[in-house]
Write a structure and sequence with these properties.
Blueprint: H1 3-6, E1 12-16, H2 17-27, E2 32-35, H3 42-51, E3 59-62, H4 66-78, E4 83-88, H5 89-105, E5 111-117, H6 131-137, E6 141-142, H7 147-164, E7 168-173, H8 174-177, E8 180-184, H9 203-206, H10 210-232, E9 238-241, E10 245-250, H11 253-263, E11 270-275, E12 277-279, H12 283-291, E13 295-299, H13 305-316, E14 322-324, H14 339-349, H15 380-395, E15 401-402, H16 429-440, E16 444-450, H17 451-467, E17 473-478, H18 508-514, E18 519-523, H19 528-540, E19 545-550, H20 554-561
Helix pairs in contact: 2-3, 2-7, 4-5, 5-10, 10-12, 11-14, 15-19, 16-17
Length: about 550
């Protein structure tokens, strides 16, 4: 069995931050979890999926999208069970409709919502700062700075959730999720058999029609006042050092700041306040921190979230202190921080004579060729693009064609030699934007979407296209798995691991036909000439048509066969 579940209390494991979150959840008595995979959160769902076979009483599912996953976990928590859902930062946009009202109705069992932000867009289309979702929804938020804290905070988050009867946001970033460090674990909860909750009917709480919602909003505000008191006294907010100058910091940057303070010999000259309980802001603690300070530097990645809160506290308390950060140009709003960048900002803020050391001379090292991401050799997506492109070239339609694309491996169709990706917004946008292009232009429109993405966000858009008589060709690239995030299952797959053999299969072609699309064909992209003959009439027509290109991901196929 996996060491995550065999480790005893006080054992030390070398864990990713995401693995530490799983261990913390199991120590906290997690019973129901649901997720849609998205990097940098994917390992949480992957690991829970593997572990559930060894833990009777733990249920996990890969849901069709983040909103569904949120709703599954919320209903379990309403029934008194501890639940968890995890997603990348943009996934919370999908789940936000559920999140905002869930804050009103609350939970009974503890519920943790892991949102993994991605500064620098390592694997994402934006680098939004999801700390603002805590403020927008009015929910408490915790931010670990290391895998050890990720483990311990996850367990605590269940307790906090049950105390306030609210879901709790656990916000990580890529460098916390994917850092690996030694984690001293606690005691696992018992998983010896099925555990069922019980939902107690109370329409005046659980059914937020306007009259109920008005009452529940008032209750939420009261809960957040209680949460502010808890934040003020939370042991997750830690002070280091002492002096008339200070640094306020959160997340992975805590590590960079503590190193910079030590290396610059500032330990006896300034005080560091590292926040782990970041929403609601601990106003009392921030006030006490500012009272005897002349100058404070705020170190946080992405937006000036804590900096703005600190300025409000200083203004309301009439505290005369110089607050430095993003608004003063000491640190940028863009991208991840580096230890050297933070050290330089600390030195500059406090008037120290410091500059980053010159990088080592590597002029003798031969220049390495660039290695951009690319589709795997033999990938069925390559062959699908090739088939479509050759037919369009033969029809003389390639120059005037628009290729809306979507989120997945096939987004790499953007790059040479394929170059068949022209427009992208978010999951499922290939279908909705194709409809818009069909109204706005007379150009040929061929859009691409993956099987998992189609179930995630393409179904309703395709229904819209049928009803409003839009004209474009949609290519559903069915490679049997959610390949980009680690080969998670999809409802249409035929090739599946043993633990999923009893699941029903949802046929993509039948789904498309049921939505009212009259022109639907399936192809094997490796049988190029046969496929070209089948799709030619659809690509030269002027009606809505769907091509299902079926061939398994070559890596996934090898993995399942093993």
């Amino acid at each position: 069995m996996h060491p995550i579940i065999t480790a005893k209390p006080r054992d030390k494991l070398l864990l990713l931050g995401n693995e530490a979150i799983v261990r913390g959840a199991l120590e906290g008595g997690l019973r129901v979890a649901a997720a849609y995979p998205g990097t940098p959160s994917s390992e949480i769902g992957n690991l829970l999926f593997q572990l559930q076979r060894h833990l009777p009483g733990l249920y996990f599912e890969f849901s069709t999208n983040e909103k569904v996953a949120m709703e599954v976990a919320a209903a379990a928590a309403a029934s008194g069970l501890r639940s968890l859902t995890c997603m990348k930062h943009v996934g919370l946009n999908v789940a936000a409709d559920a999140l905002m009202t869930l804050a009103y109705i609350g939970v009974k069992g503890g519920m943790v919502i892991v949102t993994a932000d991605d500064p620098f867009c390592h694997s994402s289309q934006n680098e939004q700062d999801n700390r603002y979702y805590a403020r927008l929804s009015g929910l408490p938020m915790l931010e670990p700075s290391s895998p050890q804290e990720a483990c311990e905070m996850t367990k605590y988050a269940f307790e906090l959730s049950e105390k306030l009867e609210l879901p709790v946001l656990l916000r990580t970033t890529t460098r916390v999720s994917h850092a690996r460090a030694v984690v001293e674990v606690g005691e696992m909860a018992h998983y010896e058999g099925s555990v069922k909750g019980k939902f107690e009917k109370d329409p005046r709480r659980w059914v937020p029609v306007p009259a109920v919602a008005r009452v529940r909003h008032q209750i939420l505000l009261e809960k957040m006042r209680e949460a502010m008191i808890l934040a003020d006294g939370s042991h997750w907010n830690r002070l280091y050092g002492k002096g008339p100058r200070g640094i306020l910091v959160s997340g992975v940057a805590v590590n960079y700041v503590l190193d910079a303070v030590e290396e610059l010999n500032l330990s006896e000259q300034l005080e560091v306040l590292a926040l782990g309980f970041t929403h609601p802001h601990p106003a009392g603690l921030l006030t006490d921190f500012l009272k005897d300070k002349e100058i404070v530097l705020v170190v946080e990645e992405l937006e000036p979230y804590l900096e703005e809160a600190l300025r409000v506290v200083a203004q309301e308390r009439n505290l005369q202190v110089s607050i430095l950060g993003k608004s003063t140009g000491h640190l940028p709003r863009l991208f991840e921080f580096t230890p050297g960048q933070v050290k330089e900002a600390v030195a500059r803020a406090f008037g120290l004579d410091y500059s980053r050391p010159d990088p080592p001379d590597l002029s003798w090292v031969p220049e390495l060729p660039p290695r951009p991401p690319t589709l795997c050799p033999g990938c069925p997506h390559r062959e699908t693009y090739r088939v479509i492109k050759e037919v369009l070239e033969e029809l003389g339609e390639l120059p005037r064609s628009i290729f809306p694309t979507d989120i997945g491996c096939y987004t790499l169709g953007l790059l040479p030699p394929i170059q068949m990706a022209d427009y992208l917004i978010c999951m499922g946008s290939s279908v909705g934007s194709a409809a818009g292009f069909s109204v706005a232009t007379d150009q040929r429109i061929v859009s691409f979407i993956g099987d998992s993405t189609f179930f995630h966000a393409g179904l309703s858009s395709l229904a819209n296209a049928v009803y409003n008589r839009h004209r474009f060709t949609l290519v559903i690239m069915d490679n049997e798995t959610t390949a980009m995030t680690g080969h998670q299952p999809v409802p249409s797959q035929e090739l599946r691991p043993p633990e999923l053999e009893d699941r029903p299969r949802i046929d993509l072609e039948e789904v498309v036909k049921a939505l009212g699309v009259s022109q639907v064909v399936s192809i094997n992209p490796y049988k190029k000439e046969e496929a070209k003959a089948v799709i030619r009439p659809l690509l030269e027509g002027e009606k809505l048509a769907v091509i299902v290109s079926k061939a398994p991901c070559i890596l996934y196929r090898a993995r399942v066969k093993r």
